[in-house]
Amino acid sequence: MSNPSSPAIKTPFGWTFAQHVLRVLLRLLVKLDVQGLEHMPDHGPAIITPNHIGWLDVVLMPAFSKVPPVTFAAEKWGRAPLVNHLFRHFGQAIFVNRGAPDKRALKAAMEVLKQGGVLGLAPEGTRSHDGILRKGHDGAAWLASRTDATIIPIAMWGHENVIRGHWLRLRRPEVHFHVGEPYKLPPEARKARSREMKVYTEMIMRRIAAMLPPERRGYYA
Q1: In the structure, what pLDDT confidence band is assigned to residue 78 with cuts at 50, 70 and 90?
Q2: Cα separations (Å) of 126 from 57, 90, 129, 178?
Q3: How far apart are the C-alpha atoms of 207 and 216, rounded to whole Å?
Q4: Mapping DSSP to helix (H, G, I), strand (E, B) and coil, where does residue 73 land?
Q5: Could you give the CA distance from residue 9 to residue 20 in angstroms, rounded to a whole number?
Q6: CA distances (Å), 142 to each of 83, 110, 172, in order?
Q7: Which of 2, 39, 126, 204 is deepest in the core (most CB within 10 A)?
Q8: Does residue 83 surpass a pLDDT of 70?
């Protein structure tokens, strides 16, 4: 059931048009295997937790989202010409200092969820480049435990090295975008301390890993 009145779910100007363009371009440039779109949230509080392979992730998630998610982006992109404006406008980005725990970014994300918004957060924290799942960080688990947010796992693969490995050879790679069933952390997570978050991060990462091919599960194989 949608919740369009939520003050945290804002539709940036041009979102619908941009989403249509992204979908057309994706179907032209790659062979898409999309599954589970019915699980994408249309209201919050919800956290979309994808694995993170490369720059094409930034296209795939908004292309198939039911509502515009608020996303995390590395602080360096907040200073990049043009990209800065795209992240701020369409991604409604919360820029994160990845060198240390960023309390300001967590506070901003918490506010989005408390107001019923949808957040996009890759638990790995950075790109894996080779498509192999890396160890997760505790941010997504901490936010979900404090807001009782629904978590939606996403597994993507097939678009690592997409430019040199495929497009420069005039090939269309097969790209997979699978959305898993929504779930919540167990009730006891609400009282867990920060140092106890690892067990819930493990839960989140294993949900993602279960949707990936075995050879791509990495740390969670």
Answers
A1: low
A2: 12, 20, 9, 20
A3: 13
A4: strand
A5: 19
A6: 29, 10, 38
A7: 204
A8: yes
